[in-house]
Predict the 3D structure of the following.
Amino acid sequence: MRRISRILFLVFTILSITISTVVVGQTLVKGKVVSGEGNLPLAGAIITVKNSKKSVTSDAKGEFSIQANNGDVLEVRSLGYNTAEQKFSGGSISFTLTALSNELNEVVVTALGIKKEKKKLGYAIQEVKGEDLTVARETNVVNQLSGKVAGVTVIASPSGVGGSSRVTIRGERSLDLNKNQPLFVVDGVPISNSVSGASGRGNLEIDFGNGAGFINPDDIESMSVLKGPAASALYGSRAANGVILIKTKAGKKQKGLGIEFSTNTTFETPLKLPKYQTVYGQGNGNGGPFAFGNGAGGGLTDGTDEGWGPAFNGQSYAQYNSPRTLNGQVIPFLGGDLNAPAGSVITPTLWEAEKDNLKNFLQTGKTITNNVAFVGGNNDGDFRLSYTGINQIGMIPNTDLKRNTFSLSGGYKLSSKLTARAFVSYIVGESDNRPSISYGTESIMYLFNCWLPASVRLRDMKRLWQPGLENVRQFGWNYNYHDNPYLTLYKNTNGQLYNRILGNVSLKYDFTDWLSLQLRTATDWSNERREYRRAFSTQRFPFGQYRETNIVNEERNSDFLLTASKEISSDFAFSATFGGNAMQQTSRFNEAVAGQLNVPEIYSLNNSRIALVNEQSKVGKRINSLYGSAGVSYKNKIFIDFTGRNDWSSALTLPEDLRSFGIEDNSYFYSSVAVSAIISEMVNLPKYFSYLKVRGSFAQVGNDTDPFAYTQTFNRSEPFGSSQIYGETSSLANLNLKPEISNSYEFGTEAKFFGNRFGIDFTYYNSRTRNQILAIPLSNTSGYTSRRINAGLITNYGVEMMLTGTPIKKKDFVWDAFLNFSANRSKVLELSDGLTNYVMASRRVTVEARVGERMGSMFGIGFARVQSTDRNAPYYDASGQYSGQMVFGTNGRPIRTTNRIYLGNYNPDWLLGIGNSFTFKGIKLSVLFDTRQGGKLYSETQTVGREGGIIMETLEGRANGYDLSLPGNGVIGQGVVLNSNGTFSPNTTKVTAREWHTAWTAGRNIAEGVMFDASFVKLREVQIGYSFPDKWFKKTPFRAVNLSFVGRNLMVWDNVPHVDPENMSYSGGTALPGIENMSMPTTRSYGLNLSFKF
Amino acid sequence: MRQLVKLVFGTLILVFSGCTKDFREINTNRNNPTSVTPDLLLSGVIRSTMNQQVSEAWSIGNLVAQYNAKIQFVNEDRYLWGERNGIWNNVYGNYRDLQNILTQVGSNTSSPYFGVCLVLKSWMFAQLTEAYGDVPYSQAGKGKTDGLFQPAYDKQEDIYNGILADLKRANELLATASGPFSGDLIYGGGAASIIKWRRLANSLRLRYLLRLSKQKSVNVEMQAIINDPTNNPIFTANSDNAELRYLSAAPNQWPLYDSRVGSFDEIRLSKTLSDRLTLMNDPRIRVFGRPTQSSVSAGSPVILGIPNGLSDVGALAYNGGPQNVSRVGYTFACLVCNDPGQPAPLPDAPRALLMTYAELQFILAEARQRNFISAGNAATYYNQGITANFAYWQSVVPAAYNLQISMPAGFISQPSIEYTGSENELLAKIALQKWISLYFNGLESWHEWKRTGLPTIVPGPANLNNNLVPVRYIYPLSEQALNSANRTAAIQRQGVDEINTRTWLFK
């Protein structure tokens, strides 16, 4: 690989030398080039004498001299500026260039916060401006990268309010699903994006959000996505999956105080609701009537929670919400009040379908965001103070999120050489309740998708308690298995209080105009408190429960950076940086659980009925680093950058007592080189080319591992009476871990056409990650379930393409368009120790890495099928007549495979985002479509929803009820049966609908029948905005008034039944992509955004 | 260029690495110890394996042996079994800590922990091989010590030989064992418990020898044990029973105590059990099942089970619905599984069983009847077994429940029980009483049925297994990914990896 970069460099050097021209003398014209904005000198502008080959470039002061004759026309070109011409008629000459709107001279923020002109970069970088994040907004800002940046996949957890998001850039590089996320950097300082698992202690998984989701979009000036390791090499270990650089807003030089204000209100409704059958009510398929007795089998099929009951035919049955009478008098008790006076009877009420239980249950979510910022600045300093308040009320009842962010950013020139800057952001997040996700009694989708027959009118359960037993006995429709969903949301809450301080201070000293030193220290400190409450009579907690968790995460970074930038000659410029960083992470976890309570409604550890259970841990890590970069540019046409970094990690340092047992390797060096050349400045291209750049880079990134990887501990569990209990952790340590190394290269090109009206940016990349440190699962027969090793070789390659264009550009009407396309393939080339596969995650299906195959492949039990190739394998059909058909048993049920088979890959084949914006006078309409092609999804909603007779599909086989002798009833599976003589014949056995829908998965064993193509097209974003002319507000203090209607996730076109194809589930803090498990409906949001300045 | 960079960095590295001194301390885990004493591990192994006995019995053992039957979610009862990894994960998981104890004890074989670990290990692997057939044994649990990550599967025969040898050795070592011994949740630890562990070791030997008797002559070994009670002590009374007594306080209550009522009530008394016990007027039926709720309402309480292996619809509709089918005994019920008007059951009444004195008596009865041993009298053993089981339940079921389960006068002399008849009739009588005594004891009844075919198990009418009663569990699907070659080798030796493949021991 190094050879390729060398060759590239050589080629470019030779190219540029041959193209350089020689100047022959006439009159020496002296002149200067300045930019239209602020009359700043423009270096690197190219001055040519028209119709000759003479050309020079301007120096750092914007000055140039060139031989010319009187009457010659001088032309000045500079990247990002309109070309200017002047006739030379003696004397000195000066050019003022006006900037192009497309900003070819775009300055982007690169690693370590160093600003660079985009043209100088040898790698792909894509930027999203702050205003693109704050108009059509999301509570979790990360979600907004979807479709806007090529190669970025964002999957948000569908948890309603401000849930976490899983971001991957250029596919999956690590075998550890938790380690494929990019690093988030705010103002040059890495921040924590950790997810602290939230299940355990009998409670289901809850998504409390992840670190990056708490960043306030209103404080973001820009987000740069550094995609490849070359871009992020300077960040080291954690940047192997790319970096999302966030630059916060600063004050600007201006007259007086500026006040900016924006307000945004959006409403959230479900984008897609599951489709339930509303023909049959509660029951078990026996065809008989229903009667509520005690909700636990005391009546007629009232203990079952399935939708296989009688059809709605206008009959009446005693139901949970039917009135009760005593001696003929109506009493204030309902069917479900089990404490009703003895002898009272339930009066049957109409048996009817509640068609919109879920729709009625959900409410319109509302998010109100207000932001006010005070900005100011003069020659010596700048200042910005902002406040943002987000108040979100979830679509799911009684779920909410409030977040207040106070940010202060300022800088001051203490002397002509010394500048100080500081940024601090204080974030207070609070949620009274975040919903439980996944499968189980605490999750409401578990109820809706699997176990809530249409006969149950849910809204009557708003009455939470049985009368007289308030806070003690819940009221509901089924006491065998289920909690009243209103109780789940209003009483069994999962609260969160979150405090975070994010900030940095820096001092910059300019020794000369080309040498400076920056010292900076930063912290990201957060304290999170979680409170889980469970009321009395909750199914899993008859005596209630109270659980309290405190999590403190801290990351401190201190660094120095020496920067030199000097022009060596008129042709060569040199820049270099040298720096060092000390990073320290600490996280503390503390949890106490009162497993049962004495007195209802007192949620305090003091109220524990049994011994408290505590858990505590403290984990720390430190990485010291030295790094540097050197860059050379030639004539502002060719740019070469080298970087190098060495890390020392505490996580790869052996503890004292293990020192002599292992081989320590805690220091690792890696480097990168990137080259770019502006071809359009070097050769004469056809006229329609306005700009052509090629780039290439090679990079290595090293990585360490989690803290305490070397220690194998014995963990305490609850004692048995007076006997204390410990057990060894089931993960096996390894004392000989080496750092991981990932090598990658990319090359690409960027071109602009027709006066920069159209542009294309193309990248091919390839990376190989070796020696990944991961806990590989072991057969537990070895005594351990996993072991940490350096394993594998994974290659990851793909293309990214961005097209931009302005098809129409008239005075009053402009049409801008962009397209982002990316395709990625990750393949497993090797696993270590003779392993052929590695199980990354499992839940009914396993996500496996198998040597020679794509990452993200899913395996599970399939349908046995007839085959005509292997005589010895089961279901061999020599005739081939039935080859491929499903095999059924004589009972009419599909037969399953013994072994797991390949069921598909969850990774998409390609991603496409298409955006269009139309500006007519002050009105701007923009529309963004986001497409994902390919990828499979396993749906647990299908598996269990079929069993429960709840989802629409379960109408198959019961067109006329349950009597198999009637037409339309029962299902004959399409396939064959194996005859006793070894031949096959078509299956003719009919099974009942209820049997069929359970047989389809063989009782939650076969996964093949519930795999779906997760491709989709989404109308991701629509904005209609109007910028009011300032003259309208002449007599008011308002300026820059903008009003926009905004919508996000407005439509989806897809093939997955019931759930959003953009889906994943969580298990123990690990995201499980490709596996849907009772996901909440995702949201469509629309609303209004108003902003103005004073 | 690269050289230069390296040189510069090299120099700086020397300077900089001075700042990494505290790295060692930072990377030292102070949250939990890296070694603990054997007693702390032993208690964990015992609690975990004994809890597994309960959950395995509840979820499958009691169903396949037809003590219980399902009225809802009837897949297991219809023999639609997926992977059942409970025992597998439990045994190998706990074997880790057993190995840690053995490592700590080292060559000190006189430590009581050594012998006790051998007893537990034998029992654990017996459970495993009886459920799955060939399993990793000799190479198992050696991930840490030997770097063995994909252990070979041993032949069931070899595993059985190992188990018997270990039990014999445990008995011998424990005879001279001394030193501290605690963490014993079964017998309470201390010197006094050691004799009980020896009795358990020898009783287990008899259990496994009898189970082996179909494949090998076991006469000599059995006889040797019986002949020398001084050196080979065996259970002498219910007080020797190997069991875990739960506590009244959470979280060490009877494992089913915090079930949801619906989950508990999916499982009911099996008609097989209620018919058999009713026929014999056996009052123990009141331990295993409760009078149906509708019969109680009607004022004439009757205990009536439901046939195993009905269809989804059939099971729930049987006899007019759940109100007419007996719930599982009050003794074993969950907190909210009491009948109307009844107080909540006690959380510490039922116990987890490893082996009982009653079972031993039935083993001896059969061994004597078949002349594997020559000592004693089969009828005496048989009668002692029945009496012991009655006594056991009387000690377990709280008096406050008022179930009246003392043995009625003349009970044993009923023709259906009295130890008379042909050889086959006698063996059937032993098997029947033994079956009753093995209620809620893991999978023991199932294994006994696989050996003897007694008492008869008739697959339910809606079974999905071609009218065959399953005879093994399939290997965990994860083994296909994680230990593929060895699993394949075992299957080639043993037969297809499915529930109807008989393993060597039960052929």
